Amino acid sequence: MARKQGSHSDITGPKVQDTALRLIAQHGYAAVSMRQIAAEVGVQAGALYNYTSDKQSLLFDLMQRHMQDLLDALHKADLQGDALARLETFTRFHIRFHLPRSDQVFVSYMELRNLDPENFAAIEAMRRRYEDALESILRDGEVEGIFHVPDTRVTTMALIAMLTGLSHWYREGGRLAMNTIETIYWDLVRKAVTA
Asked: Averaged over 87-94, what is the pLDDT?
């Protein structure tokens, strides 16, 4: 099928990704069809295959892009100082990165079950790299005598779940400003790991 007049791959490609992300976040992966995505983008359904090979690849690309952005941003974060200072920086980084990306967070965490095994393994490996960064901080804190946790892996998963959960309910313009919420969450994290 011919590309719609005035369509450009550098515009339409990102529009396909953005539309798919929004629709999957709103309705769930299983409920969204390629035809629905095409209609929202304003192209024929067949034209989507100029931008993705299939719906599974589209989902994987959305998750991979989110995880790569997260890992790149973490790499640039200033995780310096003792374990307590690094944990505070990680906590605040996690909140600031995830809050403006609620659709990406929802899709990346809730749609894992819809990835085929190979794609699931790739995303899980990326997630593990991120989780390992936090677990390393917790282990260092135990060595430094700052933290006391029963199990660093379980604590890592619990803290990430708590911090990520903020994306599901926080709305800008609500009762508390983001900086206040961030400070409250840092206090919760600190109290969870210190003796």
From this structure: 97
Nearest to 15 by CA among 29, 31, 4, 30: 4
Handedness of CA 15, 18, 23, 28 (dihedral sign): positive
Calculate the average pLDDT of the chain. 91
Would you tell me how many other CB atoms lie within 10 Å of the CB of residue 83? 20
Q: Is the pTM above the cut of 0.85?
A: yes
CA distance 123 to 65: 10
Q: Which of the four CATH numbers 1.10.1020.10, 1.10.10.60, 3.40.50.10330, 1.10.1740.10 does domain 1-52 have?
A: 1.10.10.60
User: Which runs of consecutive H residues, i.e. helices, occur in 77-116?
Assistant: 83-98, 102-110
Closest CA to 57 of 78, 37, 75, 72: 37
Residue 194 is classified by DSSP as B
**Percentage, residues of the chain above pLDDT 70:** 94
d(CA 74, CA 41): 32
Joined tokens for residue 24: 């999957």
CATH fold for domain 55-193:
Tetracycline Repressor; domain 2 (1.10.357)
Evaluate whether 178 touches 100 at the Cβ level (below 8 Å): no
122 contact partners, CB below 8 Å, separation of at least 6: 60, 64
Confirm if 62 and 104 have CB atoms less than 8 A apart: yes
